[in-house]
């Protein structure tokens, strides 16, 4: 997109427009399932596709992106676990610094390795403070990154982490309870982060109902990310779409 996604997300945030990002994990999506989903997206409010995951074994990013391109012009953003996941046919990449953790590899180490590749890729870089939140079970990303998630009942720690990320120049904040989380990111934590920073806030992990989506958006999320829920329940996308449209309807009327 000529404007750039960073500008678009900031603009959305400034007037309260909410967005839905559908996460496609190249390991989990089947070609048939993907075609059905992509055909459906035309009638639903999908703003972005995220492609990736912390552990990808099939390296099918390119094929998944090619399928998305065949069906729709919705922007595709990489959600990488490591520099092997860089795929220039996407539009943009979340350059994640895992600021909830204390593992230098995921704060800066992998970024140094990736930087020349990213520069050549032509991808729009979205510098993102990535905050893992405890979700009642150990998630793959916590295990792979060797980091402890933020305690789910400590919204003040999350708020200070987000503030520090914003002060360091990160442009987006992503609160993630991890894929398939038992508990999504608590509303109180989203609200505390919302009050602490001006950046758009992305929230994901365990959002598997319209009600959970509503709660996250109401608490201050600008973008919600849903992966597993959509893969497992064909009724979820229409439900999420209705929730997003309800929020955005009131924005238009305001
Ligand atoms: C995980 O935030 C994403 O990193 C989405 O999680 O698959 O649980 O929707 P789900």
Automatic annotation (TrEMBL):
- Could you say which residues bind Mg(2+) here? 25, 54
Enumerate the Pfam families for this protein: PcrB
Domain of life according to the entry = Bacteria
Q: Does the keyword rRNA processing apply?
A: no
Question: Which coenzymes or cofactors are required?
Answer: Mg(2+)
Tell me if Lipid metabolism is a UniProt keyword of this record: yes
State which Enzyme Commission number(s) the record gives: 2.5.1.41
Catalytic reaction list: sn-glycerol 1-phosphate + (2E,6E,10E)-geranylgeranyl diphosphate = sn-3-O-(geranylgeranyl)glycerol 1-phosphate + diphosphate
- GO terms, molecular function: heptaprenylglyceryl phosphate synthase activity; magnesium ion binding; phosphoglycerol geranylgeranyltransferase activity
Q: Where does sn-glycerol 1-phosphate bind?
A: 174-180, 205-206, 227-228
What is the uppermost EC class here? Answer: transferase
Record GO biological process: glycerophospholipid biosynthetic process
List keywords of the entry alphabetically: Lipid biosynthesis, Lipid metabolism, Magnesium, Metal-binding, Phospholipid biosynthesis, Phospholipid metabolism, Transferase
Q: Which GO terms describe its cellular component?
A: cytoplasm
InterPro entries reported for this sequence: GGGP/HepGP_synthase_I (IPR039074), GGGP/HepGP_synthase_sf (IPR038597), GGGP_HepGP_synthase (IPR008205), GGGP_synth (IPR010946)
Report the sequence similarity comment from the record. Answer: Belongs to the GGGP/HepGP synthase family. Group II subfamily.
Q: What does this protein do?
A: Prenyltransferase that catalyzes the transfer of the geranylgeranyl moiety of geranylgeranyl diphosphate (GGPP) to the C3 hydroxyl of sn-glycerol-1-phosphate (G1P).
Q: By what name is this protein known?
A: Geranylgeranylglyceryl phosphate synthase
């Amino acid at each position: 997109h000529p404007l750039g996604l960073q500008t678009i997300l900031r603009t959305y945030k400034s007037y309260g427009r909410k967005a839905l990002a559908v996460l496609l994990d190249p390991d989990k999506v089947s070609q048939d399932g993907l075609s059905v989903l992509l055909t459906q997206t035309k009638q639903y409010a999908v703003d972005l596709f995220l492609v990736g995951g912390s552990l990808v074994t099939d390296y099918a990013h390119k094929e998944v992106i090619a399928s998305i391109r065949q069906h729709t012009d919705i922007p595709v953003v990489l959600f990488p676990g490591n520099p092997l996941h860089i795929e220039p046919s996407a539009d943009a990449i979340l350059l994640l610094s895992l600021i909830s953790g204390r593992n230098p590899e995921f704060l800066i180490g992998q970024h140094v390795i990736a930087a020349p590749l990213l520069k050549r890729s032509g991808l729009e870089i979205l510098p993102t403070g990535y905050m893992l939140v405890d979700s009642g079970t150990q998630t793959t990303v916590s295990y792979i990154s060797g980091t402890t998630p933020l305690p789910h009942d400590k919204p003040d720690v999350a708020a200070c982490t987000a503030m520090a990320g914003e002060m360091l120049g990160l442009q987006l904040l992503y609160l993630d309870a991890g894929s398939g989380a038992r508990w999504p990111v608590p509303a109180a934590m989203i609200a505390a982060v919302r009050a602490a920073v001006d950046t758009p806030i992305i929230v994901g992990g365990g959002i598997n109902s319209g009600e959970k989506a509503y709660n996250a958006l109401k608490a201050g999320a600008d973008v919600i990310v849903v992966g597993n829920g959509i893969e497992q329940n064909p009724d979820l996308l229409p439900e999420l779409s209705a929730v997003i449209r309800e929020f955005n309807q009131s924005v238009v009327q305001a």
